[in-house]
Amino acid sequence: MTTRIETNDSSIPLRRDVKSLGHILGEILIHHGGTELLEKVEKLRMMAKSLRTSFDEETYKELKEEIVNLDTPMRKQVIRAFSIYFHLINAAESNHRIRRRREYQLQDNQVVQPASIESALLSLKENEIDVDTIQNVLNTLSLELIITAHPTEATKRSVIEIQKRIATILKSLDNKMLTKKERKKLEESLLNEVTILWQTDELRHRKPTVMDEVRNGLYYFDQTFFDVLPEIHQDLEEGLSEQFPGYKWEVPNFLRFGSWIGGDRDGNPNVTPEVTWETLEKQRELALKKYKEALIEVMKRFSHSTTRTEVSEELIANVEKDEAAYMGSDKQWPVENEVYRRKIAVILTRLKEVGKSDIGYQSSEELLEDLYMIQRSMSKHQPANRQLKMLKKLIRQVQLFGFHLATLDIRNHSGEHEAAITEILAKVKVAENYAALSEEEKIKTLETVLKDPRPVLLLNEDYSKETQEMIKVFTMIKKAHDTFGKKSILVYLVSMTQSASDLLEVLVLAKEAGIYRLHADGTVESHLNVAPLLETIDDLTAGPKIMEKLFNMDVYRNHLTIHGDSQEIMLGYSDGSKDGGTLTANWKLYKAQLEIHDMAKRYGIGLKFFHGRGGSLGRGGGPLNRSILSQPAETLGEGVKITEQGEVLSSRYLLEDIAYRSLEQATSTLLEASVNLAKGSEQQHLRETVWEKAMEEISAVSLKKYQSLVFEDPDFLTYFTEATPLNELAELNIGSRPMKRKNRNRFEDLRAIPWVFAWTQSRQLLPGWYAAGSGLESFASKDEENLKLLQRMYEEWPFFRSTIDNLQMALMKADITTAKEYTDLVKDKQIADRIFGNIVEEYEVTKAILLKITGDEELLDHTPNIKESVHRRNPYVDPLNFLQVELIKELREQEEPNEELLTEVLLTISGIAAGLRNTG
């Protein structure tokens, strides 16, 4: 529990903000609970802090005694005080990230922020990369970020918005030009916001509906994505022109956001076809609203008069034609000479009618044509190379977001498709019991159906409710394509893909809805990408063979031809990690990508890997740019797709400056890696055969160690459910999706999210590090040269460096002393002592070998900002953990659940999640 705390000069303004916010919180505590409350909070905090500096058994016992003796009203206030402090720290740290970025921007040209667009372009210039290579890379560059609802943000939207306002005020207070009056006004606003935060409920009183989650996702499009995405493209274009002048740069739309929210049906019965349709309507509604707002701003500025400037004949003729076709004389812009405003008035009229009448635009491409026409006319009288950025930005927005706003992926479990196909084929006597057939027989049956233009669905047949629901999903997709455009739904993901037939079943269902068609002349239409989701260790191992079988089928190759001979494959980080431990899962994922990539190359198939990473370390989390860099370099050139899970949306995308920084880091990383790959300068793609052999050996030992505890120890599940707040998590209203796939208490049915969430709360963080140390230590101890090899791998191989750094972060957030308190919740003390002893031993082994590999004295020595952030939080997390243990103990002893007690437990869960900045 003892830690050496070092501070760095760059964090002085942050510490000042934290101290200031702490004083304000102190004032509020006195106002609401008297000096007694403040003194109690301070006493607990100082004791926890002193234990972190120098552990003392007497102080430790005294701290626990203080917590046990808290009376109920005081206890709840203390929990809230510590929890709210974390929200204040989070706001201060967000502002500090913005401050650091501005400090770089204020430096002279000799100082460039690492992993910025500017640094990437300077690197390309220094390496003498020619402009044609860069442009060719840009033409194929693709980064898609997919927002998901689960594990829905533990913090309520109201609290998130208060955090945003606090961060904004802190940013304003940094302005050295503020007058005394302006500063006083801002300080009063800060006090008011912290007061509102104290007076706001932290907990949701009901589970969010899917549409609540949709609205939460749309909030980020409205507040951030709509403006930041065009800015990234614009800055890259301008940076290229600056570093490589004389070339007409064209930056395609390489960076996009998509969504799963409202389309992810896997294990969530609340995502119905009707909900998906409503989601698509809400998305279009927001896109149209944003365009209307932007056009009104453009209209204010485009007051050009034909008496002063020359407007194109094309535009004048078009305005006259469109006014006659779409607007009555009373609706037209009244000033005849203001042709741009007349045209924008027409555009606004047509936007208002989208989806309502024939006056409305039928597609976003029609809107773009009108905007291009204005742009062409403007070029006649604007100074050369001085396009009006407002119009250029709007054009980029329409290109990026269309009328659909974001492509919505649909996901469902392979078993659901098989059940529907079994019933459908039985009704038409094609297969009596399709589900019972061998894999080869299934493929033969499905190929026959797909090669026959005739339908197998009967119009008025009495299908089961489940099959009818599945049919409705596909008819909804067809209707969505007709109504919102084909970009509205492009990909159908099959979770738990275990065989080639799992994908063919989806094609059959698509065929019956008219999304996939075989015409009588043999031509094929296909408007839906079908993507496997490889999740478990076994599925990752089988992945290459599954895909090769599909690539050898004419019927599937014809489908791929329509999609440009490109196949999307999703890799699940959560279940693999739960299945085999984080180190083994990450290596199997890396290997699967290499094997599938090499195999697909032989067939002339391009691959896009979709990385289903979570926000937490146990589910593949970490910085976005590091996620990209840790992939096999040769897989980056065909596009990268990554999930942005619900819990990281606020930390990355709540504030525009931080959103820009996160996306800039990802862009610069992907651009540099792709250019290096194009130039063939990767030197065996930045890895050596000996490194791969080392990882194979390390992974095998790690897997054995992990499974010996998680699957082979008969008491492990008992320990897990009792020594963590797993059962209490179910009462926290943070997501619309159930915690378990089925209403059973089997380990296999437990979702990866509560699995990680529960371990995180108990400060054991087992999914983020367990068994990695055994694998690494076993390899290092075999030969003294092996440790040197691991050290070189850490220095030179981005995949290995990312793996080691994530392990360090997991160990840093874990705390064995605090975790031991949770063993008191286990009824059988022998089980508790034995399994916890195993965990402690592995923790020490892992920490020791990580420090040897990195050459550091302490964990995260190379990232002082992150290290200091963890140290800053620990004295406030510790009391919440102690409180949580006592409350759970009391709650579990109750015959009838006590609502007040449960609320206090949930408040500790919410507070610890805010403190560690992770749920699951």
Q: Would you give an account of this structure?
A:
With 920 residues, the protein is mainly alpha-helical. 63% of the residues lie in helices and 5% in strands. It contains 36 helices and ten strands. It has an eight-stranded parallel β-sheet. β9 (606-612), α22 (624-629) and β10 form a beta-alpha-beta unit. α9 (273-301) runs antiparallel to α11, α26 packs across α30 (772-782) and α30 (772-782) crosses α31 (784-796). The longest helix has 42 residues, at 12-53.
What would a concise description of this structure say?
The chain is mainly alpha-helical and 920 residues long. The protein is built from 36 helices and 10 strands.
Question: Which terms would index this structure?
Answer:
920 residues, mainly alpha, eight-stranded parallel β-sheet, 36 helices
Number of helices: 36
Terminal-residue CA separation = 23 Å
Q: Radius of gyration, Cα only, in angstroms? A: 29 Å
Strand content: 5-15%
Largest sheet: 8 strands, parallel
Principal-axes shape call: globular
For the secondary structure, the number of strands is: 10
Mean pLDDT value: 91
Question: Largest sheet, order of strands side by side?
Answer: 2-1-10-9-8-7-4-3
The helix fraction, in percent, is: 55-70%
Class based on secondary structure composition and strand pairing:
mainly alpha
Unreliable stretches, pLDDT < 50, 5 or more residues? none
